[in-house]
Amino acid sequence: MKAVNLYLLTRNRNRNFYTQYENILSARNEVLKVKEHEFENLIHLVELLCQNGVSIRELEGFYYSYTIRQIGKEFDLLKIHKNEAVLNIELKSQDVPLEKIEKQLLKNQHYFGYIAPRSYLFTFVDETESLYTYADGQLRLCAFDELIQVLFQFEEFESGDIDALFCAKDYLISPLNMPQKFVDGRYFLTQQQEVIKAEILSQLAAGTHPLYRGITGAAGTGKTLLLYDLAKNCASDGRCCIIHCGLLCQAHEILNTLLKNVTILAEESIDRADLGRCRFLFVDEAQHMRFETLTALIRCTKAYRIPCIFSYDYFQTLSKTEQRRNIPGRLKQLDAFFEHKLSGRIRSNEEMSSFIRKLLDLEDTSGKLYRYDAVDVVFAQNAQEAKEILRYYSAVKHYTYIEHDTDGAPSEFLACLSNGFRTEDVIGQEFEQVVITLDHHFYYNDEGKLQGRNHPNPDYLYARLFFQAASRTREKLCIVVIGNVTLFEQIVALKCSHLPFSLHPASGSQ
Fold this sequence. Notes:
Number of strands: 19
Distance between the termini: 45 Å
Strand order of the largest sheet: 1-2-3-4-5-6
CATH topology of the largest domain: Rossmann fold
Number of domains: 3
Shape: globular
């Protein structure tokens, strides 16, 4: 999306054409339906500015109605001088509570902090021709002269693709990978997360809540962030305990130290904890939970009337035992249970999500075509070559190796690397760059679905373990295919799907 000139944009008043005209001027990748009242607000603002001495030149370089797609955060008007300043003008048709205006501008200010050290924040109310500004920690009514002075300061400004300015990974954090940012509140929830959060907190405060709630969604939808954010908010009303269904990592220890009134426990240690003293309970990655743990939690929560919120993913089970337990299914059978579903992926790298989806299903044609530049697919003829490649990606390129085919003891690959983990050890975590291996245990069936042969541990499911490992990456992924030529060619073909020609990998499975 490109910047536009607001004066030129608002010369066309044809209601049947201004949406198309705006989309053409801004060169949007997706069609934006411009609402009539919003466009009327913009026309009125431009007229007032022109009446007060603003020329066409000062109205150049504005991004109109821009949304950070992965987050769903929208800005009405932006003018940006990267590393210098951001001008933000929000448009309102009618008077709204000042608290709402202040909250919106304050939140916007946090977003702009990653782009420039200074931000000028205004809200224009069309009905009353009022202009507000948020500066020095407070909202106040201001004259148009103040906005006009700011406009004259922007002699330089960005005009190209705004997506290159807003890097989604700056805003999409995980408590388990960026614990300090989480504690400091340097993160944002999507609109859907905010709605769920508001509903839960409102009902908890009113005492009208169901005793059990579930938060579910696919990988990358922000379940863990929402769960931890709820716990941080509830901690002001009483002691909170978060039960992590997996091994605790260093970030858990940091959060245990920094978060007030919040204790994070591994599932295996809850039998030694006095959960009855808690005001709220939270369970993360509940699909991995043992049946005995669920039974104990239900007994405790019923006895002490403790609200309990679970987060889980129906798909991300790692073993046949977890599938048979079907903890999410058991939760839905509980009395006083309500499930919230996060539907939109907010993973910072949409291209990576697309690749992983197509990697699991070669016939998947959803979404746009990408170059998949963030994905390396390399071939090793044998285990020894694979070790050399893994050492290079780990030591030189700083990738994290995630093992999905070990049965207890570290494999020869894990043993030779300083930056490696088993899949089971990184439940809930994310890494900037991940390297994984695929070998003769994997193949595509006739429907193009990635399949796994028998795992050394007969309870484990290869395909689920692989997905868990691959989906831990935020930015870059390297797949080292060992000895399986057919599989290698099939995966390389995914990287060529955007080209006008296609590769013709060998057919059949190995």
